[in-house]
Design brief:
YmcC-like fold, DUF3108, DUF3108 domain-containing protein, 16-stranded mixed β-sheet, 59% strand, 248 residues, mainly beta
């Protein structure tokens, strides 16, 4: 099968931009690192996600994904977000996204909370967007999503304002219930979430988070309009210095 640069980039973008992180409202934020297996129509990839504490209230969330076929690296994606977590509020300061290899792309966001302006750049283009409390990027909102779950909120739906290029999008999720999930690591107790989209969008995204491990990402499945199915599965992880283990 011929794999075009467009397909490879689609795989990387879809697999990296869904969810990740570890923490709890009003409690200690735990650093973590996790390794994943990913597949899409014959393309294999490995992914690493980590949360690092920079100071008492600031953190860096990073994603790195490398796609390969027949042992040859096709593309590498590096993504990071730095933010503060104060008074149960996530306040990002800088975000970056760099794709290299057979396909190339670069995005960045700089937040000026005093002026209430975010400067969003994509390759050679740039835009100024209005900032208000709750506006985040592709990674910091993922942190906030898991805070919503860890806090024990009983609402069935949650939504976030997320900067994407020249606009601020609304990302909505529905909690679909509990599930016993089989992963390369073994069976895990998880909560299942579904991304809510317009019916005409044609895409579906389902996420499973490990309940016993601070709602660590355990699995993602996404199907796009053309039927391309992308999967990401947890292979190993360390949360708060403890190795993640399966149910016995």
């Amino acid at each position: 099968m011929k794999l075009s640069p467009k397909l490879i980039r689609l795989f990387l973008v879809l697999i990296i931009c869904v969810v990740s992180t570890s923490s709890s409202f009003g409690q200690q934020v735990l650093e973590y690192s996790a390794h994943y297996q990913a597949t899409a129509n014959g393309i294999a990839a490995t992914a690493q996600r980590s949360l690092t504490k920079l100071s008492d209230y600031s953190f860096r969330l990073t994603n790195r994904l490398q796609a390969s076929i027949a042992g040859q690296t096709l593309a590498t994606l590096e993504q990071s977000s730095e933010f503060e977590f104060v008074d149960d509020t996530v306040k990002p300061s800088i975000y970056s996204y760099v794709l290299t290899g057979i396909s190339k792309a670069a995005n960045a966001i700089a937040y000026n909370w005093d002026a209430q302006i975010a400067l969003s750049t994509e390759d050679e283009k740039s835009w100024q967007l209005p900032l208000s409390s709750g506006v985040m990027d592709q990674l910091s909102y993922q942190f906030a999503l898991r805070q919503f779950l860890i806090s024990g909120n009983t609402a069935s739906d949650v939504e976030f304002q997320v900067i994407d290029g020249d606009e601020i999008e609304l990302h909505r999720y529905r909690i679909a219930g509990d599930a016993l999930l089989s992963t390369p690591l073994g069976n895990l107790n998880t909560v299942k979430l579904e991304r809510l989209r317009d019916t005409a969008d044609g895409r579906t995204t389902t996420i499973w988070l490990a309940v016993d491990w601070d709602f660590l990402l355990a699995r993602i499945e996404q199907v796009n309009r053309s039927g391309l199915k992308i999967e990401l599965q947890l292979e190993s992880a360390l949360v708060g210095g403890v190795n993640v283990s399966a149910l016995k």
